[in-house]
Amino acid sequence: MKCGIKVLLITLAIATTGMSAGALAAKAQVVQSQAETPAQTNAPAKTTGSNKAADNDSSRVSINSASAEDIARVMNGVGLKKAQAIVSYREEYGPFKTVDDLKQVPGMGSSLVERNLSHLTL
User: Which GO cellular component term is one of those annotated (predicted)?
Assistant: First the structure.
């Protein structure tokens, strides 16, 4: 009986040592591949910089003409429900004269509006 427990413990120790060695080898491969990738990714990073400028243009939305879905997609912290409240307010009271007029919409605080100023146009 004691011999069986010893064999089991030895087998378990060997198995966990093998797993640890495998994990270390996998980590070494990840570190090595990260060391190699900066030289390879420098060229694509430059092209994504120009794409980022294009994304900034498409991430702006007009609060006077955009749909609730577009507003919810672009504005940080605004879901579909608040976006629908913006559209409803616009339909009831007319177009917004300034972006700060969004603060009049129920549920839209000044911090939420200020956080999204770079995404909004009239």
Answer: type II protein secretion system complex
Dihedral sign from CA coordinates of 107, 112, 117, 119: negative
Look at residue 111 and give its three-state secondary structure. helix
Which pTM value belongs to this model?
0.51
Give the CA angle between residues 41, 32, 23 to the nearest 5°. 130
* Residue of 122, 46, 59, 57 whose CA lies nearest to 90: 122
Q: What angle do CA 53, 54, 55 make, to 5 degrees?
A: 90
120, β-bridge pairs: 61
Residue that has been written with the tokens 């603060």 in this structure: 103
